[in-house]
Amino acid sequence: MRLRPAVRTDKVMANLQVRIWRGTESGQFQDYEVPRLESQTVLDVVTYVQRRLDPSLAYRFACRVGVCGSCAMSVNGVSRWTCRTHVSKVAADDRLEIAPLRNLPVVRDLVTDMTEFFDKWAKARGRFTGDKTRKDDFARVKPESKQRKAVDAAIECIGCGVCYSSCEVVTWKPDYLGPAALSRAWTLVNDVRDVAQKERLAAVAGDAGCHACHTHMNCTERCPKGISPTAGIAGLKRAVLSATLKGTL
Length: 249
Prior knowledge:
The chain has helices at residues 42-53, 87-90, 115-123, 146-152, 162-166, 168-172, 179-189, 197-204, 218-222, 229-246; strands spanning 12-22, 28-37, 72-75, 78-81, 95-99, 106-108, 111-112. The chain has 249 residues and is α+β, with helices and mostly antiparallel strands. The radius of gyration is 21 Å and the shape is elongated.
């Protein structure tokens, strides 16, 4: 039996007026006209421009289904996953403005350099440090424990950078560790298997750490995974205070 190739049958509704950032930090917006379709995502729009209108456009994507986070961009001034953002929800008067994530160096067009974002994870001691070997028995953590529940609340972060791009504190204080790195630190502070708690609290207690957060909650509002970095940062503030009063920090 011969199979017919899949054909997209979306109805063309109108034309979108799309402005896309081109170049590096000193670049500018360039205008494009893109057919508007039913069930169209912002990533569909960017892909259309790259494949049909301008093959030199640089951007990132991978899974297209909200798993990897690599397609994050600024859409009409708001940081989002473009694969999960439908044009119908963000295109006012059939217009879109698409730019790279804020607070990160622009490599070219819609591609940002994520190096400093992940470097801050390292500065916040965002790596698990255990004291067991492969010869030891598996650690058992009770699912109903307070610490385990605190970890569960933030463990789904995939490092997409949306919260970092949305954070106003990062904008005016570039050395601030940022919501993603601090949220990761909070998960490890609550990991009863980790043995680097003192060092981690010291890493997040400085001027660029958790106390620099102004609780604007932009990170929590914009997180595509529904995580609240604000809550984790508040937890770090309490943990740092407690350790300081006890004289262990």
